Amino acid sequence: MMQINYATLLSGLLLVTSSFASAADVLPLGHHLKEAFYSEVSTQTTKPQFPALYIYDVKAEQFLSKQDAETYLSQLSEQPLWAEVMQQWVKDSSHFSATNTSLKQAVPTLDFTQPYIIFFDNLPEPMLAQFAAMDPNLVARDSLVKSILAQLDDANCYTTY
Is residue 10 over pLDDT 50? Predict the structure, then answer.
């Protein structure tokens, strides 16, 4: 008769569930909802800058300036690659205009239960590989951003792809 080691089974189950939870913390919106997002917040819809990180303060109902976003993000990692991300990918979104209601209407999948919503406008993974010759750290920065965002407790995070 086979004996079940419940401690091993439970730890395995916890490991599997925690890895699913982390992966679900950064949700892809897709191209259609990306366009809806930009249509709602900005006139920048024809040529959005990407990769880009935008941070929305749910309580204040406004986007953070580049400086405020960098201050918030700088606390998340001390890796040199993270400094590159902040310098190159954090965009000034203080000119964006939206409210919780208007954002929810434009992008119904957004969750307003945390203090911040972070939108990472990125490229699909196959396209990232195509640009590797021009920017050898592109794939690594993309992975780092997703990894760090997946660990946040005070923000709901979204990517384009």
Answer: no
Query: For residue 1, how many C-alpha atoms fall within 13 Å in the half-sphere facing its CB?
Result: 2
Global pTM reads 0.79
DSSP SS3 for 11: helix
CA 143, CA 148: separation in Å to the nearest integer? 9
13/1 Cα distance (integer angstroms): 23
**Number of neighbours of residue 26 by Cβ within 10 angstroms:** 21
Residue for token pair 């999948």 = 109
DSSP 113: S
Q: Which of 19-23, 47-51, 61-65 is the least confident region? A: 19-23
Question: What whole-number distance in Å separates Cα of residue 75 and Cα of residue 87?
Answer: 14
